[in-house]
Amino acid sequence: MNNKIKTIVGFSLFSLALPTAVHAAQPAVSRDCPDCPEMISLPAGSFVMGSSKAADDTAQPAHPVNIKAFAIGKFEVTQDEWWSIMGSRPAQFKGGNHPVEQVTWKLAREFTRKLSEKTGKRYRLPTEAEWEYAARAGSKSDYYFGQGQLAEYAWFDDNSEETTHPVGQRKPNDFGLYDMYGNVWEWTDDCWNASYVGAPEDGSAWTSGDCGQRVVRGGTWYSKPASVGSSVRTKFSSEIRYSSRGGGFRVVRED
């Protein structure tokens, strides 16, 4: 965001911030079964979603969003976790603790449905707003850390050696979440819209627009640095398994 303060509905974009409690204590960590994804509970809060940079036209306009408390996967869903629920290993880069990839949006949703049945809890894909709130972890800049540190937090074009890597090997963000940038693109529940004009401001999924295309976030192992920021977004067809790009995800649990 540039130094010129933008105003939305009578207040500054910079006036919104996460609650002090976000940084006052470590979020609670839980797991609903031995082979279930490890979850981190995040507090309710408000943040400014999107970007004011001219190059990020699909992430405009930047707008305030209110988020309810929820839990999100500490890591991207792994191939072992996928196997325990779905009984298959769809991935180009094999490894039990590597993120699952080559998964369609519809299959990712099926995973959350079966995980919900197994645990008795309501699991689903994150909304796009929840994903960005989780990735930012209270930050307002392109990344949730200082400039020049991307290789410490993400697997991307410069350091991945053209493959995914086991989850949790880079540094986490301030919420304790790993691999929010890089490794594999992550599905969200939102239909694709080419801008945020008319986007929900309550943290819910955007269920109108081009729903044959779904929003993916976070970048992947082959991404350039500009493609792994907190506000960067693109779209994949909900029914295609992307062998060259991958399609992974992390889950949300409604607490």
Structure description:
The chain has 255 residues and is of the alpha+beta class. It is built from five helices and twelve strands. The chain has helices spanning 21-24, 79-86, 105-119, 128-136, 150-153, and strands at 7-8, 11-12, 29-30, 39-42, 45-49, 63-67, 70-73, 123-124, 186-192, 210-217, 233-237, 252-253. A five-stranded antiparallel beta sheet has the order 3-4-7-12-8. Strands 9-10-11 form a three-stranded antiparallel beta sheet. A hairpin with a 2-residue loop joins strand 1 and strand 2 (11-12). It starts with 6 loop residues before the first strand and ends with a strand. The model is unreliable at 1-24 (pLDDT under 50).
Give the helix/strand layout.
Elements: E1 7-8, E2 11-12, H1 21-24, E3 29-30, E4 39-42, E5 45-49, E6 63-67, E7 70-73, H2 79-86, H3 105-119, E8 123-124, H4 128-136, H5 150-153, E9 186-192, E10 210-217, E11 233-237, E12 252-253
Antiparallel strand pairs: 1-2, 3-4, 4-7, 5-6, 7-12, 8-12, 9-10, 10-11
